[in-house]
């Protein structure tokens, strides 16, 4: 009301033919005691008594604020003091980068107006900078995020605690912050467990502009697959933030995630149909099993130093792991091949073995299809295992 009274008074005292061109920066804080990183709505408002043929608004660069325009410029005609006026408004969301007494502006509006003689005339209108006090972010350590509202949503492709043998679970976490920009959201948490094969997809970021301000969204996607099938738990991750409404530090949590094969508890193994030659070898495996039983008795009675040799002998002569390797290679199933390789190796490792397994993992989890020959992998793995001493 005071602004319109002053404007009307300016009209009354202005001489005939004089122009009245005003431009102001109007902070519109929603909360007291603005803190660093918190959104501050601002309106740049122009009121002109001349028609505008062309215009360009220029905001002086600043190292004190980030900002974004939240809606298209609004141009309209208003009746003020009984006379028509051209009114322009630009809505911004400002984000102070640091605490202190900061300044935003000046703002320049470069105009081409139509004067009383219907002639085009250049004009430049200036809005004086405004002073904005900013307090420190409440938390001294950690990622500094302020938001009107922060929500977290989890999506799972399947039940991670009861995976089928060789199955992969996809976890998708969506973090949405109202009153923030995408680059203000925290980085993706690192998931690294010895018992887990992990592939992290590229981070997705999205910005939506609304009448209430920007809404930032980030999506983190992982694919998880157990190394051995034994159940394990990914620890929860807490994401703190400053809630602009409660004026307190709050948090959301990525919940813990239990991952394991359903067959592990029941000690089941993945099965498949054997070919003719594999049936014959299976029969031989029965005979070998009898011999293995005798070997186990001898192994138990042998000194501890000699047991490693017996274990290696039984492992190398058993045909079942080799059958599983060939079966998975022939089926062209890389996940089944990875599981069969783990069973065949039975703890044996070497630089060559690790290199071969890494190549198979790239085939399974790589972002782009990898050239991979299952038969060659089986051949090379058997050779590398034969040279392994572990």
Automatic annotation (TrEMBL):
Q: Which domain of life is it from?
A: Bacteria
UniProt-listed InterPro entries: BatD (IPR025738)
**Keywords in UniProt for this one?**
Signal
Q: Which residues form the signal peptide?
A: 1-18
Q: Spell out the protein name for this chain.
A: Protein BatD
- Reply yes or no: does the keyword Signal apply: yes
């Amino acid at each position: 009301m005071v602004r319109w009274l002053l404007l009307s008074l300016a009209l009354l005292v202005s001489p005939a033919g004089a122009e009245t061109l005003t431009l102001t920066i109007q902070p519109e804080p929603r909360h007291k005691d603005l803190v660093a990183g918190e959104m501050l709505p601002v309106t740049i408002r122009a009121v002109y008594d001349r028609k505008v043929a062309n215009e360009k608004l220029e905001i002086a660069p600043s190292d004190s604020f980030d900002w974004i325009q939240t809606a298209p410029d609004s141009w309209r005609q208003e009746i003020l003091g009984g006379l028509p006026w051209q009114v322009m408004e630009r809505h911004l969301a400002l984000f102070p980068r640091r605490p202190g007494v900061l300044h935003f502006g000046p703002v320049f509006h470069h105009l081409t107006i139509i004067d009383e003689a219907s002639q085009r005339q250049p004009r430049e209108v200036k809005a004086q900078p405004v002073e904005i006090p900013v307090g420190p972010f409440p938390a001294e350590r950690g990622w500094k995020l302020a938001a009107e509202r922060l929500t977290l949503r989890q999506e799972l492709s399947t039940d991670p605690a009861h995976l089928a043998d060789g199955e992969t679970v996809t976890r998708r976490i969506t973090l949405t912050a109202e009153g923030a920009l995408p680059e203000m959201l925290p980085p993706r948490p690192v998931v690294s467990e010895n018992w887990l094969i992990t592939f992290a997809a590229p981070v997705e970021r999205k910005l939506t502009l609304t009448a209430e301000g920007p809404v930032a969204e980030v999506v983190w996607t992982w694919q998880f697959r157990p190394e051995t099938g034994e159940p394990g738990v990914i620890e929860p991750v807490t994401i703190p933030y400053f809630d602009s409404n409660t004026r307190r530090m709050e948090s959301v949590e990525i919940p813990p995630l239990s991952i394991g094969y359903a067959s592990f508890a029941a000690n089941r193994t993945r099965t498949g149909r054997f070919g003719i030659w594999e049936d014959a070898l299976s029969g031989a495996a029965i005979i070998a099993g009898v011999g293995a039983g005798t070997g186990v008795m001898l192994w138990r009675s042998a000194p501890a130093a000699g047991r490693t040799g017996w274990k290696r002998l039984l492992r190398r002569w058993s045909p079942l792991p080799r059958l599983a390797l060939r079966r998975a290679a022939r089926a062209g199933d890389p996940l089944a091949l990875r599981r069969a390789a783990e069973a065949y190796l039975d703890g044996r490792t070497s630089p060559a073995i690790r290199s071969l397994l890494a190549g198979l993992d790239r085939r399974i989890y790589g972002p782009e299809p990898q050239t991979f020959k299952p038969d060659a992998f089986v051949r090379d793995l058997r050779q590398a295992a034969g040279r392994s001493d572990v």
